[in-house]
Amino acid sequence: MKVFKEARLLRKSLTKYRNTGHSVGLVPTMGSLHKGHLQLIECCRNQNKVTVCSIFINPTQFNNPADLKKYPQNIEKDLTLLERTGCDIVFYPEMKEVYPQPPVVQFDFGNLGNILEGKFRPGHFNGVGFIVSKLFNIVAPSRAYFGEKDLQQLAIIRRLVTDLNYAIEIIGIPTVREQNGLALSSRNKRLTDDEKIQASIIYKALKAGEAMVRNKGSVGDVCNTVVAVLKEATLLNPEYIECVDPDSFEILEKDDISENAAICIAVKIGEVRLIDNLIVRS
Ligand code: PAF
Q1: Which listed residue (22, 34, 37, 124) is catalytic?
Q2: 116: CA distance to ligand 1 center in Å?
Q3: I want to staple 205 with a disulfide (CB 3.0 to 4.6 A). Which of 39, 56, 226, 243 is the partner?
Q4: What are the chain's domains?
């Protein structure tokens, strides 16, 4: 496995593969890798000749400086895991390589970027749009892999690719969960054992919401059901619970009854903010 810190050298190395007709797949990450990331790497390996994983904690997508400061990192462990999973190339740039100067380009994703995460984390999707575009331009992959846990991010990236004509296939991979249902996230490392048990109620709440969608309840009924189950966990503070159309990502109104919905949730548990979702299709 090769590790590149410079975009120029990475690009040069990848040109060699591309010129011989080999497909390149990209898995962008912020490190602190878990089984969810490794699942993305495995899918990428199965579909491409060369798998590139980027590791970069992107400061412009953090609206909360404390969250950025506490974001877990462990590069040695990440490299060992990537090597073991069969990743071919790691792009691990330093800050000045990615941001030689403060960027002036801004990404505005309209309503798609202003709801849910965009509303609670102003500027977040501008930062995501910036770094993902940069990685797409440096790596120029045939395919790029993102987890469905960040469902709004996935919708934003699909829109970025459509609007800017990137010739990249975006592949969303289902969320990987602990046995108790807790969605894997690098932020889980900041939870105590008790908080982890309480956080597993999020999935229980989503499953109860799913049952309500299938019973043809209204969006209001679905959200009330989710809230009621979340109350079982005294440490969880919900930030939002919304149902969106899983294809357009438009918010479904309270009295809508929909057979296809993604129930999206953000909760705070102590200092840690977790997001999760469940896609229900008829
Ligand atoms: O999902 C993430 O880990 C990040 O938002 C991403 C896509 C790597 C961009 O920094």
Answers
A1: 37
A2: 17
A3: 226
A4: 2-173 (3.40.50.620), 186-276 (3.30.1300.10)
